[in-house]
């Protein structure tokens, strides 16, 4: 019995021996092919194309990507290339595509600036998610966000910061058709803004924004002939907005409104002659749609927020 079993084992080994030799030879050929392909100059980077970049120079992208011209493109890490490029603040996403025999395509998605951030440590641009990148040229018109924090040296603004709160307000205003030139938070934690035409706004604590934006549009329609003389609107109580007559602020960057230092305070009368051109007035709602808009007397303003 034992001799029969031993003879069977020897038969099996002898039958597998040719297959083992073929497998070993195939592995040797595969290793030789890999070594040849790794060293073949035809797989080294031949052309590198960059797509999607408008603000970041192609030359800078190629330098930061650091694709080795002497190494097979199929042996270079595409994830490593993308990670290096994402260190550029203006770049949000990178896709690396390789095609035979030696072509590389870098598809770039840049961050879209939402606003100019004027912070305690300088100026920079910020996108909708709070990522910061160098300030864009002055000819690029963007709303300004004024902040006291030193933020521009960071990569991203904290989600709970006042700047992110103002960015959210800016997006909601854009959706409502309101175009701001500047936004800030005052010492009481309330938002203040300036429209593109220089009209200053007291917005409040960030509540009832849709109603306040609707009130701005309604007032602009109702006071169409007088809108150019409106210096500021106090919308902290949207049901009773307060209007300040006077000269608009050019550029919309300043927020000093001497006539509205307090909630519902009237402008100081500097002279009797200027009373009609620079005063607070509350706009009363017309009971009928056909009635013209009426402004309550500054001596009997019941519209202080």
Highlighted features:
single chain, 305 residues, alpha/beta, Ubiquitin-like (UB roll), Rossmann fold, 2 domains, eleven-stranded mixed sheet, three-stranded mixed sheet, 24% strand, elongated, disordered C terminus
Summarize this structure briefly.
The protein is of the alpha/beta class and 305 residues long. It has helices at residues 2-39, 58-65, 78-85, 162-175, 209-222, and strands spanning 47-51, 91-99, 103-110, 113-119, 122-127, 132-134, 144-146, 180-185, 191-195, 200-204, 230-234, 242-245, 280-284, 294-295.
SSE order and pairing:
Elements: H1 2-39, E1 47-51, H2 58-65, H3 78-85, E2 91-99, E3 103-110, E4 113-119, E5 122-127, E6 132-134, E7 144-146, H4 162-175, E8 180-185, E9 191-195, E10 200-204, H5 209-222, E11 230-234, E12 242-245, E13 280-284, E14 294-295
Parallel strand pairs: 1-3, 4-7, 7-8, 10-11
Antiparallel strand pairs: 2-3, 4-5, 5-6, 8-9, 9-10, 11-12, 12-13, 13-14
Describe this structure in words.
The chain is α/β, with parallel strands linked by helices. The chain folds into 2 domains: 42-110, membrane protein fhac (Ubiquitin-like (UB roll)), CATH 3.10.20.310; 113-300, Rossmann fold (3-Layer(aba) Sandwich), CATH 3.40.50. Helix content is 27%, strand content 24%. It contains 5 helices and 14 strands. It has helices spanning 2-39, 58-65, 78-85, 162-175, 209-222, and strands at residues 47-51, 91-99, 103-110, 113-119, 122-127, 132-134, 144-146, 180-185, 191-195, 200-204, 230-234, 242-245, 280-284, 294-295. Strands 6-5-4-7-8-9-10-11-12-13-14 form an 11-stranded mixed sheet, with helices on one face. Strands 1-3-2 form a 3-stranded mixed sheet, covered by helices on one side. β5 (122-127) and β6 form a beta hairpin. The protein is elongated, with a radius of gyration of 34 Å. The termini are far apart. The model is unreliable at 256-279 and 286-305 (pLDDT under 50).
